[in-house]
Amino acid sequence: MRIAIAGISHETNTYCKDPTPAEDFFQLRGERILKMAGTETSTGGALDRCHELGLEVVPILFTIAQPSGTIEREAYDQFKGEILDGLKRGQQLGAIDGIFLELHGAGVVQGITDLEGDLTQAIRHLVGEAIPITAALDLHGNVTQVMADALDGAFACHLYPHTDMHLRASEAIDLIVDMLEHDFRPVTHVETIPMLVPTTTTMLGIGKSMLKKMINAESEAGVIDVSWFHGFPYTDIPEVGGHIVVTTRGDREQAERLAKQMAATLWNERELFRPMSLTSEQALDAATACKKKPVVMNEVSDNCGCGAPGDGTHLLRSMIERDLQNTCFGFVVDAEVALQAHEAGVGATITVSLGAKEDDFHGTPLKLTGYVKALHDGRMTMLAMNKGAKLSLGKIARLVVGGIDIIVGSKRSQTFDIGPFIAVGIDVTEYDLVALKSSHHFRAGFHELAGEIITADTPGLSTHQIERFPRHNAGRPLWPLDDAANY
User: Fold this and answer.
1) Domain ranges across the chain
2) Could you tell me where the beta strands, DSSP code E, fall in 313-389?
3) Distance (Å, whole) CA 195 – CA 141
4) 178 Cβ partners below 8 Å, 6+ apart?
5) What are 234-252's pLDDT values in tens digits?
């Protein structure tokens, strides 16, 4: 069997001020895609499963960018055209038996609110109905029936942090093989719930208990997959919301019944998804009261993984004003300051204007004088989520300001694990407070070592207070924005 592998992955925050051009995407073509084998990523999982089953891989194009603003139409058209052309060439060189796609589910393009629906429809139109097409997606997708009808299976990662993406991709490959060997056609139903779910981990609380119900529903005979798409609330499009996606071995009535049942369960528990938002001062007060160390504090509202700039200064400013000791912050995105530190060298004392260069919503620049303790090129291997994948933060520097070690990075990224700290010589277990910018992915790398985890929700593009964002295009009413919302 010959399996084509391709994908476009982007989590689009339409509230970001700038569009996302092609050059912001990390692009892998042809044989370079094969280097993702052995990584706990979606494409890595698909490659590994193909190898295990002795399937021939036809790698085309995989491109991914940090969450950011609406994708430029020219960029999307380029990537889409390249994937379609690659499939045509693959068919000319020999029959393509199946297609695996790594997608996100929350892609928005200038003039197209449903990237995944547009792309999968185009692929289906090109290859016809006989070729199985499956996809692995992020659970933060705003998915549509249009996409589901073009695919034969849409496998969202179950976990948040997304530590099972490779496993879900493996299931997507298995479905292709199952279809080809047993000659059947799955059906998929998408049930949309009019609710906006703040980023909610599945490691504890309502996220964990709700996921268990979804997975238990998969045990029903004839069910291939139950995917709970939390949705991506930081976007203003008609498709925004929560989604239950059920795939069966051909029974459409079963898929719709089970999806509606799970959707009703989710809706009835909606009030449990309301987050408790703490200001930086409240969060630091709570951290001071904690007896177990280190306290890990995530600034949820300035998460690059949701489209925020990562250069916000609200929490760090509060930490400095309190003159905290034995604390570290990893990290603030500021390429100018990182370069300044590298030019000065280890051992230098420099005066900088740190952060808040993207806008004034995430704070104002910090005028600081700090000691350059360590420097690093920012190249590292991910240790928890996406384990084994390469990550580049650009030049990074460790500045010591009073009792706080501040890591400064050059490229936008949330903090996934302890890698950035290790790179500049910081053992987080020796600190009282470890602050970072992330919604929940950091939990994969920090939950075992943290004495306590506290969330600071300062002003920012990824705040849990999703009701603050204007909605001009979203279907209304929506919970928790409207009292009249109903399912």
Assistant:
1) 2-273, 280-463
2) 327-333, 349-354, 366-376, 379-381
3) 13
4) 184
5) 999 999 999 999 999 999 9
